[in-house]
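Thread: Modeling a multi-component assembly for a lab meeting

Hi all, long-time lurker, first post. My supervisor asked me to bring a structural picture of a complex we are working on to next week's group meeting, and I have zero experience with this. I have the sequence lines for every component (1168 residues in total). Could someone generate the structure of the whole assembly? Inputs are pasted exactly as I received them:
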Amino acid sequence: MLKRIRHRIMHRLQLRESWLIFFIMGIIMMNFPFLHIFNKSDTLFGYPLMFLYFTVGWAISIFVIYLFTLAIRQSADERHGPKEP
Amino acid sequence: MNSGFASAALIALLYTLLIFLIAWYAHHRKTIGRSIVGNPYVYTLSIAVYCTSWTFYGSVGKAATTGIDFLMIYLGPSLTAFSWFFLLRRIIQISKENNITSIADFISLRYGKSLWLGALVTLIAILGIMPYIALQIKAVSTSFYLISGFQGDSFHIPHGGSDLNVPSGLLLALILSLFGVMFGARRLVSSERHEGLIAAVAFESLVKLISILGVGAFVTYRLFDGFSDIFTRFQAAYPANFARLFTLGSENISPEAIPSFTMLFLSMCAIMLLPRQFHVMVIENSDERHITKAMWMFPVYLFLINLFVMPIALGGILSTGSSRGADFFVISVPLATGHSDIAMLAFLGGISAAAGMVIVESVAISTMLLNHIFMPVIVRFTPQAWFPLLLINLKRLGIFLVIFLGYFYYRIVGDSFMLVNMGMISFSAAAQFLPAMLGALYWRRGNRTGAISGMLLGFLTWFYTLLIPSFSHSGWISKELLSSGPFGIELLKPTEMFGLTGMDMWSHSLFWSMLFNISGYIICSILLHQDERERDQIHKFIGVFEYERRQQHRNEGKRLSKPVTITQFVSLMTKFIGESDAQRAIDTYRGGRELDANGNISEFELPNLKRFTEKSLAGSVGAAAAGAIVDSFLSDMGSRMESVYDIFSTVRTSLDQSREALFVRLKASEIINRTLDLQIIMDDLLTLLIKEFKLDVAIIQLASQNGQFTVRSYQGSNRRPINDQHWFMESRPYWEMTLADRKAHFVNDARLASTAITLEKTLAEGIVSCAHIPIFREGEPALGVISVFSKSITGLFTEEFISLLASLAGQFAQAVTIVHEIDAREFERVQKEQALLQNARVMRDMEIAQQIQMSLLPAAPPEMAGIEIGGCCISAAHVGGDYYDFFLRDEHTIDMLIADVSGHSVGAALIMSEVRTLLRAQVNSSHNASSILMSLNNQLYDDLTRAELFITMFYAKYNSATGKLSYANAGHNHPMICRMGQDSCIELDAEGLIIGVKQSVVFEERVIELYKGDVLLFYTDGLTEASNSEGEMFQNSRVCSQLGSISHLPVKDIIDSFYNKVIEFTGSTTLQDDISIVVLKIL
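Re: Modeling a multi-component assembly
Sure thing. I ran the full set together rather than chain by chain. Output:
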């Protein structure tokens, strides 16, 4: 089950459209009005809200890129066949 | 000079040595073929040259003064990394394909190798990068003061009697320049990867990351108790500041603050467009597969390097009490707390960050400077042997120039800006490349004029709205310009153009420069056309993935008007890149290509060689300059690139055949199959060629029966009869060659035809190119030649065109062969017909002869009392030599004769008629049979000897009054008498030779008395010698018995019954020989 979900996600990530969507989403999230949500001087567990938003958001975006690169590798493997048995 | 200074200098020196060692080691590993930099990790670290001392010091300063928005500078590149798999990969592929050396090279190549565009990009890069380098110099020298505790602006070096004051910044600039020269300008070839440089940069990236993580961990966990501790304490101490630093776009905007969007946009551009980023990401990329790893590892690097920036900034404010000097909290905080070792680590990190950036930047820009500013000037001079030396030193000079420009900017602008804000000026300059760059990759219509005008407008706007104000900030340019505009024109105030107020200067500049840049680019691109050089490049940039596939088909579309040899190209390359490099380049080119006996390549291959030479040169001097070098070299040689008239449009079908070519083939086969009339085929075919391919004259020569080649069809303009004075005869050597080797021979430019064969008259006709194509079937000798001539297009005859013509000639050869075969068959048929006709005519003649001959025989037997007489002759052939006749002398006497001329020819018939004439004449003079025969023999002897014929004859005379028959025989068959009551027949014989054997012969004359009821039968040998299918003859015995059995019948019936009997006997209606029968019945 997990494997199937993983496979489907990988497959979707190979589409050029998914790249574009995530890229545009990134730009939107870096701008107002989205930023406005976190544009407060409150803290959460002692961390400023904006600091948390950027740090966690950034980490997530890096993880998404990482998923993309996995998808690329998988599609390359599918095209050329697995290198190792 | 205190100890702090000494130790700082010593550590810096040792560190420098280490860097050099690493660079040397990497270079060494490369030379032995085991590169240590060819992996995605080093690639990622080298991209991290993006983090300069701006990141290292400036981020903290920015965080401490304006807050968390400093992160935008790093979030932008993180976002851009999403696009790398498409964008960066494509740029790398294009650059590798074309030996691109820099971003200026890349942009100018796309827009038709424009020298102006390359120069403009270089100019923007040099001026734009000035503040950036200044930033590094400022950061390093400031940090040096801090770490060494050294005060003042310059070092005092004892020099003879007086002290020499050397400003520390100048010293630093010098050292950095030397660094740059040693790492980046050891060799001229700039498209080659600098592994030493990359190893050093990657190592420095590692050092700066470790350094800032170290400082961050120290501040966060040693001075404070973790992140939340810093935040909580800061919030408690400075609640107002806390709110300001952790929110964006708060109301109290300082003039220094830059909106987050501007920073995001600029940083997204900068990561791709800064010359040094382009250099490490594209030029120094060793494998495009490294991109996928770098895509997430580089953001991770940025994430880590920024993780502790906020805590350090807040910690710095907390420990120093204010945000003054926040740019250098990284050093000052550890120093203030007495941890000089941590401060030294930070100092090393700062040096690493600055040095890496300056080296790569200066190398990248000096390459651009050399290739796009110096080279266009140099190529105007004749290449000299010392050029390679000059070029490399110019490149080194470029590095000094770039760094010292930065130094002077630092001297002028100095401390009036924060580090980050200085850097933003450079980012804004780099952003001016964006429209042209994106257009280069994705917009086909984007043209050179658009790129130049857009970039120039953007650059001028940037210069006016950002660079000039930055000078005036420092007081170098009067403040009045800023406050009241030039000449007091408020609308033109640099920071409030056209009355646009309320914007910070960076956003303001970005808005106007991008507006002018993009509109200039788009408007000019739409209004104006691309020239041919640009169109050549577009397919290399747009659709690069298909490009590789298409490379296999050579479709250069260009030709050299005058052939140039490989050696000439090599000597050209030697002058620019040195002999060994040139030789190596040409060796790789030669491998796998067919060369002719002289070591040269075919005319079709020459454009590829030219392109290869350009590409090799481009690796050192840039594409634009390489193009200019090769072009000027060719024009010196009297050769140039000219467009091949593309008879095939670019639309190609899957068969790699253009529609036009297929159309022509189709038309040609229609023409060829429509008729068997060669003349029509030839005329139509040539007309088709002339019409479809813009030819002017076309001629077909074919071999005639005797093997001579003659012009059979001649189509085209101003035709004149072909004779020895005709201009076409000048091409005789070509078509004779074509006939001999059955290969097409062509002259693509008649003016440059070899000296051995002059084409003066042809040229005088206005003809500029011609081709001669053999007409032949595989494995057979040539049947003829098709010659085509063009008056308008030199270089018409491409490989494809020639092969098309050859295939048409092949089709035509098939047709010629078929027509020849049909002709031969037709000829044979006509001959046969003629023979038949002839035969029929002869037959008819013979029939006529036969009729005449028959008419010479007595039409009806004479009437005489007491006898019944009758005769008949049936010839086997149409004419025959049989003859019988009767002469009624008086009422009692009748002469009868039967004769047979040997043979059945017309000759026999003629002789027979002669015999008849002679006999008729003699009948009245001679009276007895023997004398008649004798005189006949005398008269005929000569004629018969000549004709090699002879005659047998039996002559008889019957007197009814006496009942006596006197007769003489000249070798004829013995007539028979059937007498009533006798079983056997009486044969009549008399001595005598055949007529025509001897001159004079005496014939015996005998007499026999006939009685009533006797039937006398005269016959020719056709009767007795008639044979049946078993070869048995009719024989005298059968004649006799037949005669006996029918003697009672009337004469006519006797004759008929003999004929019937013979037919019955032989079993055939056609006779083998003439049969003549004469019957006399005594009543």
